[in-house]
From TrEMBL:
GO cellular component: membrane
A molecular function (GO) term: transferase activity
Gene3D superfamilies in UniProt: alpha/beta hydrolase (3.40.50.1820)
AB hydrolase-1 domain ranges (all copies): 38-160
Name of this protein: Acetoin dehydrogenase E2 subunit dihydrolipoyllysine-residue acetyltransferase
Pfam families documented for this protein: Abhydrolase_1 (PF00561)
Top-level lineage group: Bacteria
UniProt KW Transferase keyword: yes
Length: 262
């Protein structure tokens, strides 16, 4: 996967904080890129992590150029901040910065964009969802969400079920989570998903249980594909998961093509 890395931003003026962020741009290996996908990693992640590659590769094989930002507030990438700095609001802010950069860079570089997609894993799915309903207008062809965060209340319920001390551990990891996470909920906004959407879950996922993803999917006006990956826990584990992601992308592209020709 040929890739180039770019750096953006030096200061978040509103927060008065360092907001340096890097962006990795992946190119297809066997054809010129004709479409663009911006793909967001989850909390404390990186755009090129091994599990994220399972989400990137199906897009690259279909001729998408993939922009994979390294969002701030992670111990696993070279952007500003550490994992303990993370807030959902920060991740949505940086997702918006990354999307703006991708579109501006595409215009400068004269990228051909036949299709525009957003995708995200875990907390990155929440970021992609917020940008899809609020930032892209009619430019978005489709949205793909994998093990996506949907609601702070649901996420705290899931965390509580992991272990007796799970909420205490969360409070040590992320002191702001208990008060900030419940303010974030995509479920009441589901009617605004006016574009084809696919959601995938891991059958073994206890961090974002499949039922949480299915709850969102059942509310969507244009939910076209819901898949439970049988081998996967939270991070798309197993040899079959990438194939399921590729299959969901096939359904999304076929849906878009049908609408375009009808």
């Amino acid at each position: 996967m040929p890739a180039a890395t770019f750096s953006i931003g030096t200061q978040d003026d509103a927060a008065g904080a360092d907001a340096r962020m890097t962006m990795t741009v992946f190119e297809p290996t066997d054809r010129p890129a004709t479409s663009l996908a911006v793909v967001f990693h989850g909390r404390n992640g990186s755009g090129d992590a091994p599990h994220m590659v399972r989400l990137l590769r199906p897009y690259l094989r279909r001729g998408y150029r993939v922009v994979a930002p390294n969002l701030c507030g992670s111990d696993w990438n070279d952007s500003a901040g550490t994992g303990s700095d993370f807030t959902i609001s920060m991740q949505v802010r940086d997702g918006r910065r990354a999307l703006r950069w991708a579109l501006e860079h595409a215009a400068r570089a004269r990228w051909q964009i036949d299709r525009m997609a957003l995708a995200g894993h875990s907390m990155g799915g929440y970021v992609a969802s917020q940008l899809a309903i609020g930032d892209l207008g009619g430019r978005l062809d489709h949205l793909m969400l994998v093990s996506t965060f949907t609601s702070g209340a649901r996420q705290i319920e899931a965390r509580r079920a992991l272990a007796p001390d799970a909420l205490e551990v969360l409070a040590r990891e992320l002191p702001k989570a208990a008060t900030e996470w419940p303010r974030h909920d995509i479920l009441p906004q589901a009617a605004r998903f006016t574009f084809p959407t696919a959601i995938l879950s891991g059958a073994k996922d206890r961090i974002v249980p499949a039922r949480n993803c299915k709850e969102l999917f059942d509310l969507l006006p244009r939910g076209v594909c819901y898949i439970v990956m049988p081998e996967a826990d939270h991070c798309m584990e197993g040899k079959t998961s990438e194939g399921f992601i590729a299959g969901a992308l096939d359904v999304l592209e076929a849906t878009v093509a049908t609408v375009a020709t009808s």
